[in-house]
Amino acid sequence: MQVYRGILLALLVAGPAQAQEVSVSEGSDLYRTYCWQCHGFESNGDGPMAEMLAIRTPDLTKLAGENDGVFPTDRIAEQIDGRSQLLAHGGEMPIFGAVFETDQQIAVALPNGQPMMVGLPLANLLAFLESIQSE
């Protein structure tokens, strides 16, 4: 019985990933459309709208560096999709939170190896954010 559960879990996790490819390029496009206004064109927190927020806009290129070198996939996903409240504006990211609501779900791997289901657009954005991490 244990073996069947393992196989079923593997199929559930691997199935969506094979059917729907995560794209750093599409994540970059999403960032350029929805995120740069606050987080800046270079993702370092100096966008033209940053000064209007209640708290300092983070430098998105240093997320891994501020987390012992590990990109905090779950924390970032939960802040973007609204599972974790943001002090700057509460709920999901403003204006465009619905962009990440989709039936196209995909499993992304968390730093501990566990899968987390997120919408494909959010998976793309996470892939882009992970790709821009600096030392």
Molecular structure report:
The protein has 5 helices and 2 strands. By secondary structure, the protein is mostly helical. It has one domain: Cytochrome Bc1 Complex, Chain D, domain 2 (Orthogonal Bundle). It has a two-stranded antiparallel sheet. Helix 2 (24-34) packs across helix 5 (120-131) and helix 4 crosses helix 5. Residues 1-12 and 14-19 have low confidence and may be disordered. This is Cytochrome c domain-containing protein. GO terms for molecular function: electron transfer activity; heme binding; metal ion binding. Keywords: Heme, Iron, Metal-binding, Signal. Residues 22-133 form the Cytochrome c domain. Pfam families: Cytochrom_C.
Please specify the SSE layout and strand pairing:
Elements: H1 2-19, H2 24-34, H3 36-39, H4 73-81, E1 105-109, E2 115-119, H5 120-131
Antiparallel strand pairs: 1-2
Keywords: Heme, Iron, Metal-binding, Signal
GO molecular function: electron transfer activity; heme binding; metal ion binding
Pfam families: Cytochrom_C
Offer a quick outline of the entry.
InterPro entries: Cyt_c-like_dom, Cyt_c-like_dom_sf. It comes from Ruegeria atlantica. It contains 5 helices and 2 strands, in the order ααααββα.
Which descriptors would you attach to this protein?
Cytochrome Bc1 Complex, Chain D, domain 2, Cyt_c-like_dom, two-stranded antiparallel sheet, Cytochrome c domain-containing protein, mainly alpha, Cyt_c-like_dom_sf, heme, 135 residues, 40% helix
CATH top level assignment: Mainly Alpha
- Arithmetic mean pLDDT: 81
Low-confidence stretches: 1-12, 14-19
What is the makeup of the main sheet? Answer: 2 strands, antiparallel
Tally of helical runs: 5
User: Order of strands in the sheet with the most strands?
Assistant: 1-2
Provide the succession of SSEs: HHHHEEH
Domain Cytochrome c: 22-133
GO molecular function, one term: electron transfer activity
Protein name: Cytochrome c domain-containing protein
Pfam families: Cytochrom_C
